[in-house]
Amino acid sequence: VDESVREDMNKLEDTFPGISDRFRLVNRIGEGTFSTVYKAEDLLYDHYDNDWDIFGQAQAQEQEAWASPPSKRRRVAGAHGRQRKARYVALKKIYVTSSPIRIQNELELLHDLRGCRSVCPLITAFRIQDQVVAVLPYFPHTDFRIQYRTFMVADMRHYLRSLLTALHSVHEHDILHRDIKPTNFLYNPDLKEGVLVDFGLAERHGAEYASPCLCTHQSYVRRSRILSSYYSKNPPSGGLSGGYPKNDSRSSRRANRAGTRGFRAPEVLFKCTSQTTKIDMWSVGVILLTLLGRRFPFFNSADDIDAMIEMASIFGTRRMKTAAAMHGQIFETNIPTIGEKGYSWEKLVKWSSCVEDLTESEQQATRLLAGLMELDPTKRLSAEEALQHEFFTSPVH
Ligand code: ADP
Ligand code: MG
């Protein structure tokens, strides 16, 4: 362990006096915008049942929560079946720059999802003043950026089945993860299983209850077609101000756009105010596209507008206009290389991976890809539907 990491780990030990009685910090394994994650050995793992969940008592006992004897803890493990003891744990120190509500939200959602297969369980959490640490079982995994190149179709199938299994449970709980991407799905190729982590941006469905988006109206499909054909006959002209209808009394839109660039669903970019669990399914599609196309990251635009342009170069302007109109937005571009029609997924996968022909199983995967990267969220596959796809149910070898 290098010097700066050692120093950082010492600091954590200083912040939580007594932490070393229970955990031996091994290394720093993740450093993100909202947290730092350390690998640690649970020294009392033989002694204490660390599959106990004391969230809920954490506030009352925050200072000694991690050290309190089992008898003081509320047992929930029995309610959701077997949980293994974890000798190694991941300590996720959530930065104080995260709002307390956000931190509470992450821990609460993880608590709700305890016992869900392929979702990383929360062992416990503790807090001293504004410092919060979540304790999760350590899950050995490989680095996607190294792994994806070597993936055969069978590996893609295992990877996706595990990810979709996790999302199926998460979505059943009416929770949107919002940040589905390889670094938040820890995959272990030996086990052929992964665990979903990082519920830092997750939310309950319908949490932001603003005015519902146009796409929730029954007749939206018809209306969006009319709108989109209106806009193609009457393209906005002149400067930006000519770009939208006159007498537009709508207040400027505010929608949750949290997520990671390259993985945001079209309705997130179009600021849909009625986003659903389908936004996660789009991101799964982006991962599959990365695997099939053998390019990571596949999309790499810095902002939402560029992201729409990337999408338009695949889907073509016609479908992008319809998608935008569905959410009450207008899509226009004068970039000459972006055609009206777009390309088929099969063609894109071949181009991207530089192969002439796709095997039977790659074709199945490509059809699954089409169902996931569907612009219209109401037509996009759910996790449950995706798991029933031919790619999983009738694999060809
Ligand atoms: P952030 O909000 O900072 O992205 P994450 O929860 O995604 O935090 O964790 C960051 C990184 O730490 C992950 O990408 C992963 O490499 C590592 N990590 C997180 N949880 C675990 C775990 N339970 N086991 C092993 N590694 C983990
Ligand atoms: Mg993360």
TrEMBL record:
Annotated Protein kinase domain residues: 23-392
A molecular function GO annotation: protein serine/threonine kinase activity
One GO CC term on file: nucleus
Keyword annotations: ATP-binding, Kinase, Nucleotide-binding, Serine/threonine-protein kinase, Transferase
GO biological process: mitotic DNA damage checkpoint signaling
EC number: 2.7.11.1
UniProt-annotated stretches for the region Disordered: 232-259
Protein name per the record: non-specific serine/threonine protein kinase
